[in-house]
Write a structure and sequence with these properties.
A hairpin with a 3-residue loop joins strand 1 and strand 2. This protein has a two-stranded antiparallel sheet with strand order 1-2. It has a single domain, classed as Four Helix Bundle (Hemerythrin (Met), subunit A), CATH 1.20.120.450. It is built from seven helices and two strands; from the N terminus they run H-H-H-H-H-H-E-E-H. The model has no long low-confidence stretch (mean pLDDT about 90). By secondary structure, the chain is mainly α. Helix content is about 65%, strand content about 5%.
């Protein structure tokens, strides 16, 4: 498992989110983009809220709450390749979509900080993790702690692309 690589990549991606957040004015951050869909604010809430929830599942698997269930081949392939299949728009699972809200830049900063602190704590637990214990993901089925870390990396990166699409919509 490439835990160290995934952790470092997550740190790099989080830095990109922080840089983007610092570049945005509060009004633009909250504004629905010309292309419609989520604002920057909603993307930030979704990605860091869901990443914190993913860490909760990772931690639950590490602490023995997981189950010994199979992981689907396609999910293993996505995790191995390190990205979601291209050319598709994905809808957030209903449970996460219902949580969606606009937050201020200060709230986004706080959410990022909470995520980073929890990530640091949880990755310290990974060396003792049992890769056979898995917790459910709403779309991917059962993931072990290492899969959860990889998923977080993939998901964070996926939404960076969404931020880029929002940026481009303001240039048209």
């Amino acid at each position: 498992m490439s835990t160290g690589r995934d952790y470092k990549k997550i740190q790099q991606i989080v830095l990109a989110y922080q840089k983007k957040l610092n570049e945005l004015e509060e009004d633009r951050f909250l504004e629905t983009p010309p292309i419609g869909g989520w604002s920057y604010s909603e993307v930030y809430f979704h990605i860091f809220d869901s990443s914190i929830l993913s860490l909760k599942q990772l931690r639950a698997a590490i602490t023995g709450e997981g189950e010994q269930k199979p992981t689907a081949f396609m999910v293993k392939l996505i995790l191995f390749l390190g990205s979601l299949p291209p050319g598709r728009r994905y809808k957030a699972p209903k449970r996460l979509a219902e949580r969606l809200k606009k937050i201020s830049k200060a709230e986004a900063t706080s959410l990022i900080d909470d995520f980073v602190q929890q990530l640091e704590k949880d990755t310290l637990l990974l060396p003792n993790a049992n890769k056979n214990l898995k917790m459910p993901h709403p779309r991917f089925g059962y993931l072990n702690p290492f899969h959860w870390l990889s998923f977080i990396k993939i998901h964070l990166n996926h939404h960076l692309q969404q931020l880029h699409r929002i940026d481009q919509s303001y240039l048209r």
